């Protein structure tokens, strides 16, 4: 299992998403109102609700278990079929959406397909099927953002939902074909003892996601409740643009869980894996944040002038979503190395409570900026907790290099929040100078990375060597 090649395959899906979604939102902003965009945001919010509340066996647990079995060559179609059965068991729960507006009712089949597709993807990446996952992901995104423009032209939210449902049907069909080709014809077969065992094991993660929904989406829910769909549209648009950098990094970091699980099953050193990932993801994150903020501001000002009201919100949301990424990536190793996950439930409850409280207090006073400040608070608390717990469970160690990087994270965040004009280039030079002077990256690290690099990217190792 090659993490760099797999990360590039994931990145292809993210790139497609960014490009096609940008075209979609340019057209939507030109020909529709923030109120229509608010309805699209509600459908997207329902996706998050589905993956949070109905994903009773978390994808992390599925991927980890499949990766362990795949590394030991013990994967069978029966095991895959058991995991694929649980979305069908929770299908009746979707009927609760019948109490909502008609376009939400119409979205029920799509949301079920969204859940089933998520389980399939978790299984596929556990079996190192990143190529097949990328094919399906790119195909679905063309329908999701490309063909869906037709619905925007007609200002028809119902047609919009139908197009997404068609994309879900085709995506699930393709993934099913890929999985069956890999392990044999798979039939969803409920095994309640099997499912309950994994549900119980993943319960802290599930409940953490449940509470984490409040911390990640509570600001949107509060904005919709207090300010209405117009400001929800502006806030959600700012959040979507701000989420692009973390989405790109997430594509690279998305390979960590299956890769760590795979090599853990083969007996590789745990701390070495987590430390090396933290160092390189920190470098990527710093550069991404510094470059993305001015680019995002230019895009909003020139292409989406109706949403300039959310410009300051965009900056804070980008910082809170992207800058903690190297720290957040450590959770993949905590799951992969089978550490106790129960403390994350306490953290999620705390975060959820804080974001609801701060949003409710701040949004009526300072508008949508209050929601962004809530996210900064939650990101800070989560990062401190993950660092502490990773060290305590021996997943991560803090040597001189790691301490320097942990110190740089808030420095970069404060700098970008203040945003001195025309000085981003100097900050990039400062980051590179720190890596060089303190030898954050060693020659041994470069050799390990070089071993995973495809032939066309061998030049990356030469660039990294300049920092050793």
Automatic annotation (TrEMBL):
<dbReference type="GO" id="GO:0016020">
    <property type="term" value="C:membrane"/>
</dbReference>
<feature type="transmembrane region" description="Helical">
    <location>
        <begin position="12"/>
        <end position="31"/>
    </location>
</feature>
<feature type="transmembrane region" description="Helical">
    <location>
        <begin position="37"/>
        <end position="58"/>
    </location>
</feature>
<feature type="transmembrane region" description="Helical">
    <location>
        <begin position="106"/>
        <end position="127"/>
    </location>
</feature>
<dbReference type="Pfam" id="PF01943">
    <property type="entry name" value="Polysacc_synt"/>
</dbReference>
<keyword id="KW-0472">Membrane</keyword>
<feature type="transmembrane region" description="Helical">
    <location>
        <begin position="139"/>
        <end position="157"/>
    </location>
</feature>
<keyword id="KW-0812">Transmembrane</keyword>
<feature type="transmembrane region" description="Helical">
    <location>
        <begin position="313"/>
        <end position="337"/>
    </location>
</feature>
<dbReference type="InterPro" id="IPR052556">
    <property type="entry name" value="PolySynth_Transporter"/>
</dbReference>
<feature type="transmembrane region" description="Helical">
    <location>
        <begin position="424"/>
        <end position="442"/>
    </location>
</feature>
<feature type="transmembrane region" description="Helical">
    <location>
        <begin position="369"/>
        <end position="391"/>
    </location>
</feature>
<feature type="transmembrane region" description="Helical">
    <location>
        <begin position="344"/>
        <end position="363"/>
    </location>
</feature>
<protein>
    <submittedName>
        <fullName>Polysaccharide biosynthesis related protein</fullName>
    </submittedName>
</protein>
<dbReference type="InterPro" id="IPR002797">
    <property type="entry name" value="Polysacc_synth"/>
</dbReference>
<feature type="transmembrane region" description="Helical">
    <location>
        <begin position="403"/>
        <end position="418"/>
    </location>
</feature>
<keyword id="KW-1133">Transmembrane helix</keyword>
<feature type="transmembrane region" description="Helical">
    <location>
        <begin position="79"/>
        <end position="100"/>
    </location>
</feature>
<feature type="transmembrane region" description="Helical">
    <location>
        <begin position="278"/>
        <end position="301"/>
    </location>
</feature>
<feature type="transmembrane region" description="Helical">
    <location>
        <begin position="234"/>
        <end position="257"/>
    </location>
</feature>
């Amino acid at each position: 299992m090659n993490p760099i090649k797999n990360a590039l395959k994931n990145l292809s899906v993210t790139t497609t998403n960014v490009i096609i979604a940008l075209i979609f939102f340019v057209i939507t902003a030109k020909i529709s109102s923030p109120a229509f965009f608010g309805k699209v945001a509600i459908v997207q919010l329902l996706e998050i609700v589905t993956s949070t509340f109905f994903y009773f066996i978390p994808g992390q647990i599925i991927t980890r278990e499949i990766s362990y079995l795949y590394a030991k060559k013990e994967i069978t179609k029966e095991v895959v079929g058991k995991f694929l059965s649980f979305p069908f068991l929770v299908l009746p729960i979707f009927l609760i959406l019948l109490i909502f507006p008609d376009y939400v009712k119409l979205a029920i089949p799509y949301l079920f397909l969204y859940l089933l597709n998520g389980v399939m993807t978790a299984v596929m990446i556990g079996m190192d099927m990143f190529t097949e996952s990328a094919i399906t992901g790119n195909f679905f995104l063309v329908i999701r953002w490309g063909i869906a423009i037709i619905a925007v032209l007609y200002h028809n939210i119902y047609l919009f939902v139908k197009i997404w449902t068609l994309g879900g049907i085709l995506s699930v069909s393709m993934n099913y074909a890929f999985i069956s080709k890999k392990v044999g014809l798979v039939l969803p077969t409920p095994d309640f003892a099997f499912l309950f065992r994994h549900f119980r094991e993943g319960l802290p993660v599930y409940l953490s996601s449940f509470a984490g929904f409040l911390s990640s989406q509570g600001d949107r829910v509060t904005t919709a409740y207090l300010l209405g769909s117009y400001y929800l549209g502006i806030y959600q648009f700012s959040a979507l643009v701000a989420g692009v950098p973390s989405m790109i990094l997430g594509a690279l970091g998305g390979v960590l869980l299956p890769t760590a699980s795979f090599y853990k099953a083969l007996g590789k050193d745990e701390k070495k894996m987590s430390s090396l990932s933290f160092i390189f993801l920190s470098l990527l994150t710093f550069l991404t944040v510094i470059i993305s903020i001015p680019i995002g501001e230019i895009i909003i000002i020139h292409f989406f002038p109706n949403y300039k009201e959310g410009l300051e919100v965009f900056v804070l949301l980008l910082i809170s979503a992207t800058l903690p990424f190297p720290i957040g990536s450590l959770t993949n190793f905590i799951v992969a190395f089978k550490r106790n996950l129960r403390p994350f439930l306490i953290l999620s409850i705390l975060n959820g409570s804080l974001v609801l409280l701060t949003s409710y207090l701040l949004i009526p006073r300072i508008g949508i900026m209050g929601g962004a400040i809530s996210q900064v608070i939650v990101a800070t608390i989560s990062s401190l907790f993950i660092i502490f717990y990773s060290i305590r469970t021996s997943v991560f160690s803090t040597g001189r290099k790691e301490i320097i990087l942990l110190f740089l994270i808030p420095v970069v965040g404060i700098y970008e929040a203040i945003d001195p004009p025309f000085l981003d280039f100097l900050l990039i030079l400062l980051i590179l100078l720190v890596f060089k002077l303190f030898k954050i990256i060693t020659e041994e690290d470069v050799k390990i990375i070089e071993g995973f690099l495809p032939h066309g990217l061998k030049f990356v190792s030469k660039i990294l060597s300049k920092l050793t």
